[in-house]
Specification:
It is built from ten helices and 14 strands. The chain is of the alpha/beta class. The chain folds into two domains: 219 residues, Rossmann fold (3-Layer(aba) Sandwich), CATH 3.40.50.300; 65 residues, Alpha-Beta Plaits (2-Layer Sandwich), CATH 3.30.70.100. The strands form three sheets. It has a six-stranded mixed β-sheet with strand order 6-7-8-3-9-10, with helices on both faces. It has a four-stranded antiparallel β-sheet with strand order 2-1-4-5. The protein has a four-stranded antiparallel β-sheet with strand order 12-13-11-14, covered by helices on one side. A hairpin with a 2-residue loop joins strand 4 and strand 5. The longest helix has 16 residues. The protein is globular.
């Protein structure tokens, strides 16, 4: 257990007759970014709330930094950081006041707190927002402030629950640069996200659906689970091509992907034979059909469908 920051074995959490987490098991190594992925209602936030001591498990075993949950919850709280799904800071307080409040809550001494605050303000590029109320900050700055507050006491494990929700692409990329920098410095980070492109930043992934773990591994290992092939179809006009291919038997999912159509199919050879005729019948010019590697989104959709029967 010394090599793992988080160990979850056969975890169950029920709310009345509803099972939110269903005998789930996974491990998070120290110093890695661990992506926890799943559709809405899959149980991701419930697992995080259990691991942070907010909820008690119905059954199963959980250890964070060697501490048993829920027995050692009080000891654990000063060793973890938690950034919740929604902006959870005090909007009427400014940046410095929020940092000072959370530093006090985390038990940072009065002599050490000013230096810790200054370091956080510089690290997360909050200097120009020092006197601004948190509720008036841009989305990216708000999330950086929330991250700064979660890290102020230098926790060993950081839990991030959909931290980039609502951010613009530039702010999302900047936020992930901070996350990767923290991991490089030895922090263990468990993060949930709906943006599957962000999963590529993670060392390992765990996919959960209806409370059950359905896959775990590196992004490359998870992609290897794909049973489908993606075909990029270059054609014009694109809209008419999409209509011609949508819902056709054997083609699987078809969507516009950049300047091409993307067809995700379990039978690529059959699809290659059928697509030219379908486009010709719709008076759509076919320029090329090329094969593409499956994305995490392709695999994710496949695994969820398999799990749901």
């Amino acid at each position: 257990m010394t090599d793992h920051a988080i160990v979850v074995r056969d975890l169950v959490r029920k709310f009345g007759n509803f099972t939110a987490v269903d005998h789930s098991s996974f491990r998070v190594e120290r110093g890695e970014v661990f992506g926890f992925l799943g559709p809405n209602g899959a149980g991701k936030t419930t697992v995080i709330r259990i691991l942070t001591g907010i909820l008690a498990p119905t059954s199963g075993a959980c250890h964070v930094l060697g501490l048993e949950i829920p027995r050692d919850t009080t000891r654990l709280k000063h060793s973890i950081g938690y950034m919740s799904q929604k902006f959870s800071l005090y909007e009427e307080l400014n940046v410095k006041e929020n940092l000072r409040f959370f530093g006090t809550v985390y038990g940072i001494s009065r002599t050490e707190l000013p230096a810790a605050m200054d370091d956080s303000i510089q690290r997360f590029e909050l200097s120009r927002f020092g006197d601004a109320q948190a509720g008036e900050l841009p989305a990216g700055a708000r999330q950086r402030l929330a991250l700064a507050c979660a890290l102020l006491h230098d926790p060993g494990v950081l839990f991030l629950d959909e931290p980039t929700s609502g951010m613009d692409p530039a702010s999302r990329r900047q936020f992930w640069e901070h996350v990767r920098s923290l991991a490089a410095a030895g922090k263990t980070i468990l993060v949930t996200t709906h943006y599957l492109d962000e999963a590529e930043y993670c060392n390992r992934l765990c996919l959960i659906n209806q409370g059950k773990v359905i896959a775990e591994g590196t992004p490359k290992q998870v992609k290897a689970l794909a049973r489908t092939t993606a075909l990029n179809v270059a054609c014009a006009p694109l809209g008419k091509g999409l209509v011609a291919l949508l819902g056709q038997p054997g083609l699987g999912e078809t969507a516009i992907f950049g300047s091409n159509l993307r067809v995700v199919t379990t039978d690529p050879e059959s699809a290659r034979r059928v697509i030219p005729g379908l486009l010709a019948d719709a008076a759509v010019r076919l320029d090329a059909i090329t094969t593409d590697s499956p994305t995490l989104e392709d695999v994710f959709v496949q695994l969820v469908r398999d799990a749901n029967g």
